[in-house]
């Protein structure tokens, strides 16, 4: 079954093979055992996704390697045109692919369609970055140039939280820098990415973009495959560690976008409405399932009660429900494993002396993985909800008296992806930001960088950067060429 409209039809109840994998410009059935895809709003399987075997992967690698010489020989302008054509096709198919994304991921339909459209905008913007070679030095003796050349075949592995955006950013970076790519979506959310493969099969030259789905074994085969030159992985710290170990055997270049436990520090002079709106927008976007979402809030004692009330009031107004319902603002947690983790964290909160659930805390009974937006106070810094990355709609708010103490507490984590500071005093905000141990720090907002801004974290939150000129060049090998002056 290859038609996207048919894939999302209401009558789809018998788990048909949802689509095919893309190898060498052809849509083919994977030879592995198909994988059930669960609708998180019901907890029931609604489709089967194809699974690639090791032989299928070998075929994809062979196709990518065969396509590489011709693709890398094309001019940047030609490669940009192909990426822009892919972006245009995404916009054309945004609604049906967005509906498929809602079915497998759970997010509200408007958010899912918006993800497709934003992906189109972002990949176009990425190809407008200047990746020209650089003149390091030219003097009476010699001319020294730094040149950047594509690596070859990229293996892109994407997670289930923002599957389309993250997949397409990897595709655009690989293609524009002259590489070919083999893309593996999460087994929890493979269908929308596979549908994109079908949509662009007549646009991307054969072998330049290959999309294969499967389970964890497929990911391990990709990271260890000798025919793949770079891995771009987005996912958990635990899996990222295994990716790095697996890729080391063939000295692959590796970029890892991993988890976060992002703190927000609210200074005494912060604008209450601006801050509360920004905190809630970040913390509960995509049901809290964003690596750079705010996951801990530190509030000065003088503002604490007012901030808690303002945030709780806004969180309580968020309507939770199936992504297909028109009034839903927040969908379910994407999968049962993550749902049970968040339920366990909530259970521990309820057993912690002094902790209080200000709003939310309700785990919906029946089908689906729904938890209402939840605000928690009174937790110590070593509570699991504060110490771990919850990746769900439960937000702890902590009190502080001294800003330097708040900085130290915010930094006391193995994570270092993002952080934010909220204040009317921008000079002080910049000072505090400079002390945060994070790869990305914002003042008076959290998230929302342009494509020209490198993305990545410190400590356990990442390895290398994506996007921006620095991230794009991680898909290329630096070559220094020295020529004597005649």
UniProtKB/TrEMBL annotation:
Active site: 257
Domain Aldehyde dehydrogenase, first and last residues per copy: 31-481
PROSITE patterns linked: ALDEHYDE_DEHYDR_CYS, ALDEHYDE_DEHYDR_GLU
Domain of life: Bacteria
Family matches, as Pfam families: Aldedh (PF00171)
Keywords attached to this entry: Oxidoreductase
InterPro entries according to UniProt: Ald_DH/histidinol_DH, Ald_DH_C, Ald_DH_CS_CYS, Ald_DH_CS_GLU, Ald_DH_N, Aldehyde_DH_dom, LUC3-like
SUPFAM superfamilies the record matches: ALDH-like
Family stated for the protein in its record: Belongs to the aldehyde dehydrogenase family.
PANTHER family: ALDEHYDE DEHYDROGENASE-RELATED
Full protein name: Acyl-CoA reductase-like NAD-dependent aldehyde dehydrogenase
Phylogenetic lineage: Bacteria, Pseudomonadati, Pseudomonadota, Alphaproteobacteria, Sphingomonadales
